[in-house]
Amino acid sequence: MPMPLKTPKSHKARKLSKRPPLPTGLALMQDPLLNKGTCFTLEERRRLGLLGLLPPRVSSPEQQLARALGNIRQHPNDLLKYVEMISLMDRNESLFFRVVIDNIEEMMPIIYTPVVGQACQLYSHIYRRARGIYLSQRERGMFKEVLRNWPVRDVRVIVVTDGERILGLGDLGASGMGIPVGKLSLYTACAGVHPAQTLPVTLDVGTNNESLLNDPLYLGLPQRRLTGAAYDELVDEFVRAARSVFPKALIQFEDFANRNAFRLLEKYRRDVCCFNDDIQGTAAVTLAGLYSACRLTKARLRDQTVLFYGAGEAAIGTANLIVAAMTAEGMPRNEAMRRCWFMDSKALVESSRTDLQPHKKPYAHEHAPLKDLLGAVRALKPTALIGASGHPGQFTREIIEELGRLNAVPVIFALSNPTSKAECTAEQAYSWTGGRALFASGSPFAPVRFEGRTLVPGQGNNAYIFPGVGLGVVASSATRVTDEMFFEASKILAGLVTEGDLSSGCLYPPLSRIREVSARIAAKVCEVAYTRGLAREPKPKNLLAHVRALQYQPTYKSYV
Ligand code: NAI
User: Fold this and answer.
1) CATH code given to domain 280-460
2) Which among 517, 419, 535 is positioned nearest to 479, based on CA atoms?
3) 390 CB less than 6 Å from ligand 1?
4) Is the pTM of this model over 0.85?
5) Is 33 helix (H, G, I), strand (E, B) or coil?
6) CATH code that applies to domain 63-272
7) Count of H helices and E strands in the chain?
């Protein structure tokens, strides 16, 4: 459990030197934010009551890192590696983040998609130690008090889920807590938001997942989901309590079912510093991928016709941002909207349908009804096919070959997570188009060898966006998160893709550059916040330097 930080009065005051006196002895070793384990020096051991509590030989940080990595890598499967990683985070956050940051391509799939999905499915069985705050109907009326149980007041980023749509895995109830924990570890690893300033929250509003309800080890409340006014009131009490207890915190809504996600975003976005990553973060990363694809094909964004498979948060959010981007290129809005088409679980979204949810209606263009995706590809002739349906294998050979016939360079994004839900694999996209496709996916796929070339699939994952946006909000103490911030973030991300990245077909920078990407996104988000009068901190001279100076580094400070 982290120890309290005082509320900062200035940028400088945020530094850890302002923290209250150090605990000593076991209490020091049991605080994961302060613990150095075998790296406590002899002097520290003498002065801080640690003598005898640790094995005698002092490790160097490199030796400690090697030991931690060995412990993780020795496990025969990814789930056990996840458990090892979370245990490490519970013991020593510096070491955990050193491991992740230095080995981001290896560790991100474990602490985030795809393995975190498996971990959530088994959450109550692999559970070791609590992390974050749980709020349920049982605590109604006391949410402020519950949030005050968290030992830190200067929380700057909250990721909150109600567990109803965890990745593409559906309703996992309170077991969804793995997602806020995983996302927040990326805020720190990918952008450098200080871990003491992050708070994972799960609203346990019940679950309709029968296997969880029947599982005696399930750790959430074994009752059906709240709906209607009771649900809305619970969410509202949380938002009000969070604003009151953590007035500078950004609230990220995560993995809510779409009937609530769109509504809640609309309800709170004008008054509360919040965003929905599934809607807005996904949009920014996908648009950046399309910009990169346009660079390769020498086309303009406004020349694209995009067919989305799935018409939920990710797909509609992305279309909204594409429309904004096309409009910025001078295209009339109604024309831009007609460049975006959707297939949902029933059929093509078109104007004769009477069963459409409100978020789909603006895209219900006039068209004859169509039931199948192949028919839609033939009729609409899209330049890009984007999957965000949570249904695997739906981009069949016939469909991809048809897209390849229509386009010299077909763009195929299979964004559904985890890997098991991807609409097609990287290998399928490349081999069925004779190696011509530009492919990106939500969860990582390994590079593919095709006719003597190595093709590198990009990871079209919002992890390229939300950590940088969050750091920008923290750095400026922004009062709101706006669509403009995501649009600008998208352009920054696309601008950081090099000719070298593009030459292997990769539409995104490698993850090894993610901290730099996030710093630049954060600086841009700060700029938007200052320009729009949304910042609460005095404006620093150099925004990029300011953001870089704030980035958390997992290095040990001397305590003596
Ligand atoms: P959602 O539940 O809001 O939307 C799913 C959509 O797919 C709905 O419109 C539904 O009608 C449609 N659908 C369901 N079954 C279908 C079928 N058989 N055929 C055609 N359409 C079907 O979910 P959301 O948030 O849009 O997420 C969808 C997927 O995208 C999930 O797997 C999620 O993990 C992934 N995602 C990926 C992100 C990334 O960064 N790559 C970010 C956010 C979501």
Assistant:
1) 3.40.50.720
2) 535
3) yes
4) yes
5) coil
6) 3.40.50.10380
7) 24, 13
